[in-house]
Design a protein that fits this description.
The complex is a heterodimer of chains A (about 190) and B (about 210). Chain A is mainly alpha-helical. Chain A is built from 9 helices and no strands. Chain A folds into 2 domains: about 80 residues, RNA polymerase sigma factor, region 2, helix turn helix motif (Rna Polymerase Sigma Factor, Chain: A), CATH 1.10.1740; about 70 residues, Arc Repressor Mutant, subunit A (Orthogonal Bundle). In chain A, helix 7 packs across helix 9. Chain B has 2 domains: about 100 residues; about 60 residues, no CATH class. The chains are: A mainly alpha (about 190), B mainly alpha (about 210). Chains A and B meet through helix 2, helix 3, helix 5, helix 6 and helix 7 of A and helix 1 and helix 2 of B.
């Protein structure tokens, strides 16, 4: 493929003009990132592929509606599309289960330094192993930076449920990490 | 460690480059790209198909509307004609009856005229020359004989005299000479019918006057 160095604005303009090379460039630029995010939410390669395909199709279809708001805005817009698609896919497959029941949680004091020293891939693998409800809320809140209100709107749940799910997700994640560190799997 | 710290560290780690699922990601890339392109083409094809179907429907609806309009006009014309025919039916029937009667009477008249004409047209008697024969009429007296048989033994009567017998016969024949016996010559005295005479025409000696 011919090397292209394009600004986001130019890329968007060309993609709107049905430039096939621009489409391919956009795909290559965002494919890996989108696939990883999809895996974080769906924890399944097949579903992740489907969501990535659906997201890029939507991106190319609705790119004319995108308004450029400075560097990074295109990536943010595309990631939002992918997250929405991932949530839609989870809802469609009835994979999200939210358990409001609060159990007694033993808080394990994990040192920040230990977490910092962990490999990103290990942490992400731990996140992928969380139950769907926990994982979704944790990703939306901790990684994407959505508020509980936004999460509640997106998932169709109450804010308190979102908070509970986040708390449980954090607790389970910390326990898993601690256990793995204790058993030396990480 | 505060929850905020956990979130911050995980967010930082998530944004770092890591080789997690790299193999699967690379393996799926061509398939994902081809699927995206196929979906784009499909999308365009669907748009075109939808547009084509819409255009076809528009065309069909236009054609149907035109046909309906034409049919409506034809029906209106036909109903008007039917009304016209129904209105004129009684008058036409009456006129037809009159005409039929006229035809019947005319046929009769024609038949009569034909009869007359046929009568008139019968072959005329051709003009022939008339021959008038003046004939002399000869009266031949048929002598009537009366035979009487006398039986002398039974009756005393005497036979009648010959002259007396003739005188007794007829007055008209008085002029006739009894002695000439059978030939009677015309007397030209009487035109009366004489039934007992035979009229004999002799044409052989008649003269042709015309």
């Amino acid at each position: 493929m011919k090397e292209m160095i394009l600004s986001e604005e130019e890329l968007v303009r060309r993609c709107i003009g049905k430039d096939r090379h621009a489409h391919e460039f956009l795909f290559n630029q965002f494919y890996q990132e989108l696939y990883i995010i999809a895996m974080r939410y769906l924890s399944d390669h097949h579903n992740a592929e489907d969501v990535v395909i659906q997201s890029f199709t939507r991106v190319f279809k609705y790119l004319k509606n995108f308004s450029y708001q400075g560097p990074g805005s295109l990536g943010k817009w595309i990631r939002t599309i992918l997250i929405n698609e991932a949530i839609r896919s989870l809802k469609k497959r009835n994979l999200i289960e939210f358990n409001d029941e609060i159990k007694h949680m033993d808080t394990q004091n994990l040192e920040a330094n230990a977490l910092q020293q962990m490999q990103a891939s290990d942490i992400l693998r731990m996140i992928e192993k969380l139950p769907t409800g926990y994982r979704t809320v944790f990703n939306l809140f901790a990684v994407e930076g959505f508020s509980h209100k936004e999460i509640a709107d997106k998932l169709g749940i109450s804010e308190s449920t979102s908070k509970t799910q986040l708390k449980k997700a954090r607790h389970q994640l910390m326990n898993n990490i601690q256990n793995n560190m204790n058993y030396g799997t990480i | 460690m505060e929850p905020f710290d956990i979130d911050r560290i995980i967010k930082q780690k998530a944004s770092e480059f890591h080789g997690l699922h790299q193999q699967e990601i690379d393996a799926a890339k061509p398939f994902v790209w081809s699927e995206i392109q196929r979906k784009e083409r499909t999308y365009l094809t669907w748009i075109h198909l939808a547009a084509a179907v819409l255009l076809l429907m528009l065309c069909f609806s236009m054609i149907l509307i035109n046909i309906q309009k034409k049919h409506g006009k034809e029906i209106e014309n036909l109903s008007a004609k039917i009304d016209q025919i129904q209105n004129g039916y009684a008058a036409q029937t009456k006129a037809l009856n009159i005409k039929t009667n006229q035809i019947a009477s005319l046929t009769n008249k024609q038949a009569e005229l034909n009869d007359k004409l046929s009568e008139q047209n019968t072959a005329p008697i051709p003009h022939r020359e008339r021959f008038v024969y003046h004939t002399d009429t000869v009266f031949i007296k048929q002598v009537q004989y009366i035979t009487k048989t006398e039986k002398p033994s039974e009756s005393d009567e005497q036979p009648m005299e010959k002259e007396a017998f003739f005188e007794q016969k007829t007055s008209d024949e008085i002029a006739i000479n009894p002695k000439v016996d059978d030939v009677i010559f015309p007397s030209y005295q009487s035109q009366e019918k004489q039934p007992e005479t035979l009229k004999v025409k002799f044409g052989s000696f008649a003269s042709n006057r015309n």
